[in-house]
Specification:
The chain is an alpha/beta fold. It is about 45% helix and about 10% strand. Strands 7-6-5-4-3-2-1-8 form an 8-stranded parallel sheet. It binds glyceraldehyde-3-phosphate.
Length: about 325
């Protein structure tokens, strides 16, 4: 998937944007019921969710050992006997996602598995650091070997409606990312309105983000289907305007197999099949894999596996 080159800042069309919140909420609430999945299909959707997970640890007490265990899980997210029973081989998660100081350990642990390392940067999670330090952090993460960079935006730019400042900041970050692909975390739980979410999504794509991501996982409200729907529609509009496909990453609080299915139904309904693959869809999650493995185990064996099978997830 080629990088999104972005465009100039284009705000025409947003001056009096109004989002019909009750209508968006209604649509989001009915989404999970839009596809009734047969049992076999459900297992296939869960396996697909696994390959789209950015398996994440972003905690103050992260250690290289924890990251190595996480990477082992990313290389082999589902027990081999369960995969063999389903005739699946070579399944990995979409990436692992860690702090910059853990990138080198993650690269070592992932070896030649082909699983990319995503690093948060730019003063994650609040982003309240001088811009030159945030850009230096991106460059540091890339020097350590990061393949993807998850940046955070300055929420105050959005809250003040200073879209030019947001665009310029994101452009500078895009440049610092070089060949690494960039995910822009909007921290939607901080943005006050769906209109702000929609405009910030557009500005982030215009500045060259390869994915737009809902949340850091540290806001009071993280990924919801409602903000995700608004962001997906922005992605659809951006594609219609520019021909470029930008990815989507819901993150924060996604912990159940049911969540994994609901967000995939959203992608399928709003954006189409292309957005059901890791190039355009990632689920940022630290604890989702455990429930998915439980459900897959139930599918294969007819019973739920004991907790030790899902050690880190
Ligand atoms: O980017 C990923 C998030 O930090 C993960 O959030 P979570 O720990 O609620 O799954």
């Amino acid at each position: 998937m080629s990088q999104n080159p972005g465009t100039d800042l284009r705000l025409d069309g947003f001056a009096d944007i109004r989002i019909n919140t009750p209508a968006v909420e209604r649509r989001a609430a009915t989404l999970p019921a839009r596809r009734s999945l047969k049992k076999d299909h459900q297992a296939a959707w869960l396996l697909n969710a696994v390959r789209c997970i950015d398996l994440t640890t972003l905690a103050g007490d992260d250690t290289e050992d924890r990251v190595a265990r996480l990477c082992a899980k990313a290389r082999q997210p589902i027990a081999p006997d369960l995969l063999a029973a389903m005739g699946v081989e070579g399944l990995t998660t979409g990436a692992v996602c860690v702090y910059p100081t853990m990138v080198a350990a993650a690269k070592r642990a992932l070896g030649n598995s082909g699983v990319p390392v995503a690093s948060v940067a730019t003063g994650f999670p609040a982003g309240l650091m001088p811009l030159d330090l945030r850009l230096a952090e991106i460059r540091h993460a890339i020097d350590q070997g990061a393949d993807e960079i998850d940046i955070v935006i300055t929420r105050a730019h959005v809250l003040r409606g200073d879209w030019a400042a947001l665009y310029d900041e994101l452009r500078a970050m895009r440049e610092a990312c070089g060949a690494a692909r960039m995910k822009a975390i909007l921290a939607t739980g901080n943005l006050k309105s769906l209109e702000n979410v929609a405009i910030a999504s557009h500005v982030a794509m215009q500045a060259g983000s390869d994915w737009i991501k809902t949340s850091t996982g540290k806001e009071g409200v993280n990924a919801t289907l409602t903000v995700s729907l608004v962001m997906c529609r922005a992605i659809r509009d951006y594609q219609a305007q520019t021909g470029h496909k930008v990815g989507f990453k819901p993150a924060g609080g996604l912990g159940t197999a049911r969540d994994a299915i609901a967000w995939q139904v959203l992608m399928r309904e709003e954006l189409g099949r292309d957005w059901l693959a890791p190039a355009l869809f990632r689920i940022g999650a630290s604890s989702l894999l455990g429930d998915i493995e439980r459900q897959i185990s139930h599918h294969v064996t007819g019973r739920y596996a004991s907790a030790h099978r899902q050690a880190i997830a």
